[in-house]
Specification:
173 residues, alpha+beta, Aldehyde Oxidoreductase, domain 3, 2 domains, 3-stranded antiparallel sheet, 6 helices, globular
Length: 173
């Protein structure tokens, strides 16, 4: 998606050129330095970027396995989001504290075939009661199919730019 944005912005003439720029930025470290600058500009502590081991860790980590084999037809994002808030990873009300150690990692996407017993998602929690509640919520957020399901598109479309030779005449100044 970002390759399309950069092409539309005139950074490079085509997607292949933009991708080559991205690979170069990753390889030479300039992408990482730009990320560090972004974190710093927003008041973040870049020492956490430099040393992710400093980040808080949840006391409880549980891998939840698939209860059945089948294709993932849907994963209800709203339910997963609300479950993350239940863990403390987000706020239900302004001013609530966020627990930066907790969260949910979903291991599969819509359209994937998952075998029974294969890891489905991982819960990072600090409260056993909330962990149990979230386990049920996220299990129920997964909808299964016995038939193949098309994967969801990464993006649904793209905006295109229109150039007007005389923008003032068209009222676009």
């Amino acid at each position: 998606f970002s390759a399309h944005m950069l092409t539309l912005g005139g950074v490079a003439p085509d997607l292949a050129s933009v991708r080559a720029l991205a690979v170069r930025a990753l390889d030479d470290g300039s992408a990482f330095q730009k990320f560090r600058a972004l974190v710093s500009a927003q008041g973040g502590d870049v020492s956490y970027v430099d040393d992710p081991a400093k980040l808080p860790k949840a006391r409880l980590i549980e891998v939840v396995n698939a209860p059945r084999s089948g294709y993932l037809a849907q994963v209800h994002a709203r339910i997963v989001g609300e479950a993350a808030v239940t863990l403390g990873a987000g706020r239900a009300k302004k001013g609530q504290a966020i627990d930066h150690a907790v969260g949910i990692l979903i291991h599969h996407k819509v359209g994937d075939f998952v075998e029974r017993g294969q890891p489905l998602f991982t819960i990072h929690a600090n409260d056993p009661a909330r962990q149990a509640e979230v386990r049920e919520l996220v299990l129920n957020a997964h909808v299964w199919s016995n038939e193949p399901v098309a994967p969801l598109p990464i993006f649904y479309g793209r905006a295109v730019t229109y150039h007007y030779d005389n923008q003032a005449e068209k009222g676009l100044h």
